[in-house]
Design brief:
This protein is mostly helical. Helix content is 66%, strand content 6%. Helix 8 runs antiparallel to helix 9.
């Protein structure tokens, strides 16, 4: 045996082994099937009831009414399976199915619960690769029990529990989601109102200085600047008109007074008044460096010197002045009226100028403070927009959750539909006696082959030249074939003695 294990066995060696031990192998192969079949006859029968539940998508399109997000169908089925296989659910199932009455009442409730937990099997139907859809199309419910009718009843009851539990879970999830979203919506509404109040108070405080009013303020500031320029020009014209009217009034009064006193109106005094009036008009229009102003000043100074030299510029005694003794001419009255009108215009334009300056200062302060106000306004607006978006999002989700709950109540959402009702098994699913017989045949062959190989490994006979070379570790010089059955023993002795005479150390006992 040790010698045979030292070399590798070839296919020819295995074939030779099979030829020598085929009887043993065939015997065990023939004994195996009847023995296994007989054993299967003593095993208790188990009947399997099967049902197929189809998972139908919602009847209303997802684009119209969005379903409330739940766990995947596979996770829900596992969760429902754990709930259904719980002790409380199985006790209710045992009572509804009548397993605790009649002949079946011999077993205790605990025993039935253990049996049902092992007997109920739920397997998912995987989507086909051709469709490319990951959505679970359905699942199988299998119940294996000793009684076919009991297996059918329990399978139908478990399927009904799955359908009822799915509807309950969908409605409960939708209701709980709606309640949660409603509570969150109340808080979001309070936050939105608070942000709205802050924003309204800020707008009331900084009205006219908001970022949206910046361009308006700039436009108004430009218009007020133009109005101020126009008011300044109108004020300058009114002042010029007043100065001119005053100058003309002075000339007219001097001429009239001269006429009243019997003097020549065209006196040096009259000329001096006229020149002074002209100088005043020039000073209103031009600066002191202007040539006409310089010349007018020189003329006035020259005339004043001349009057001082001649003595004609002596003041008229008060007793001789009686301007009110006679009626003033119409021209003097007109010039006085023009002066009054010019004074009113000057006062009006001065007030207008002050008002415009005040408004310009107001709008300038608004424009200058606009960056600070804009920063605060953006912060408030950002908080308000965030609160508004959160409120609108929660409002939308609550509406979707409420509609999803209504769909579940009206059986329009995702539904479990029984495609194949629970069947009444005609034959037991266990034990499968043909399969047991086939297993016995395979087992018999395995045992026969194993014993044959074991016997061959224990056999130390040298049957071939290869066995002799491996066993004796010496080369074979010659082989003497067996002549016949009768002379077999003698031939073997002759071959052994011949080998011994070669001096290779081979003896008969080997």
């Amino acid at each position: 045996m040790e010698a045979k294990l030292e070399r590798d066995l070839t296919a020819a060696d295995y074939i030779a082994m099979f030829r020598r031990r085929w009887v043993l192998i065939v015997i065990f192969a023939l004994i195996g099937p009847p023995l296994a079949y007989g054993i299967s006859r003593f095993l208790p029968n188990r009947y399997k009831s099967h049902t197929l539940v189809l998972i139908e998508p919602p009847n209303v399109s997802e684009s119209l009414v969005r379903q409330v997000d739940m766990a995947s169908v596979g996770q829900r089925i596992v969760s429902m399976q754990q709930q259904i296989l719980s002790r409380a659910s199985l006790e209710s199932l045992i009572h509804q199915s009548g397993l605790d009455s009649g002949d079946q009442a011999k077993e205790s409730a605990d025993s039935w619960i253990d049996q049902l937990q092992k007997a109920i099997e739920v397997t998912a139907v995987q989507p086909t690769l051709e469709t490319g859809d990951r959505y679970l199309p359905g699942f199988n419910v299998n119940v294996t029990l000793a009684s076919p009718r009991t297996a059918q009843a329990v399978c139908a009851a478990v399927t009904s529990m799955f359908i009822h539990e799915n509807d309950r879970m969908q409605q409960q999830h939708a209701e709980e989601t709606t309640q949660f979203l409603s509570a969150q919506l109340v808080q979001a509404k309070a936050d939105l109102d608070a942000q709205d109040g802050k924003l309204a108070a800020f707008k009331g405080r900084y009205i006219g200085s908001l970022p949206d009013d910046e361009q308006t303020n700039l436009n108004l500031l430009t218009g007020l600047t133009s109005q101020l320029d126009a008011a300044n020009q109108a004020l300058a014209r009114a002042q010029q008109d007043k100065s001119f009217a005053q100058s003309m009034l002075t000339q007219q009064i001097a001429a009239w007074q001269a006429t009243q006193s019997g003097r020549d109106p065209d006196t040096l005094e009259q000329q001096l008044a006229t020149m002074r009036s002209q100088l005043a008009n020039l000073e209103l229009r031009y600066t002191d460096d202007y040539p006409d102003v310089i010349k007018a000043k020189a003329d006035v100074a020259k005339l004043e010197k001349k009057i001082a030299d001649t003595g004609e510029a002596k003041p008229v005694p008060e007793s001789s002045k009686s301007p009110k003794a006679a009626v003033e001419p119409a021209q003097i009255t007109q010039w006085r009226a023009q002066i009054h009108t010019a004074e009113q215009m000057i006062a009006e334009k001065t007030r207008e100028q002050e008002q415009i300056k005040s408004q310009i200062g107001l709008y300038q302060s608004r424009v200058q403070g606009s960056p600070v106000v804009e920063e605060q306004y953006k912060e408030l607006t950002r908080g308000y927009q965030t609160a508004l978006d959160s409120y609108n999002d929660l409002l939308k989700k609550r509406s979707e959750s409420a509609m999803s709950g209504e769909l579940s109540k009206e059986q329009q959402g995702e539904q479990f539909t029984v495609l194949d009702p629970a069947n009444l098994p005609d034959e037991p699913s266990f034990p499968n006696r043909p399969l047991f017989a086939l297993g016995g045949l395979v087992g018999g062959l395995a045992v026969g082959l194993g014993l044959a190989f074991l016997f061959e490994m224990q056999d130390t006979s040298l049957r071939t030249e290869r066995d002799v070379e491996v066993g004796l570790r010496l080369p074979v010089l010659a082989m003497v074939p067996a002549i016949g059955p009768v002379a077999g023993k003698k031939s073997n002795k002759t071959a052994v003695s011949g080998l011994a005479s070669t001096g290779l150390g081979l003896n008969a006992g080997a």
